[in-house]
Design brief:
The protein is mainly α. Helix content is 95%, strand content 0%.
């Protein structure tokens, strides 16, 4: 059980970190064009 649970938890943390970074990049890339267009 622990050998299955720990990698899954680590993968979830990694995925959360990646998604947060991606969201930050998307918002940083999307906001300037929107503000300049508006």
């Amino acid at each position: 059980m622990p050998s299955f649970f720990m990698p899954k938890r680590a993968a979830t943390r990694l995925l959360t970190s990646i998604s947060k970074k991606a969201l930050g990049l998307v918002s940083a890339g999307a906001l300037p064009p929107l503000t300049s267009a508006a």
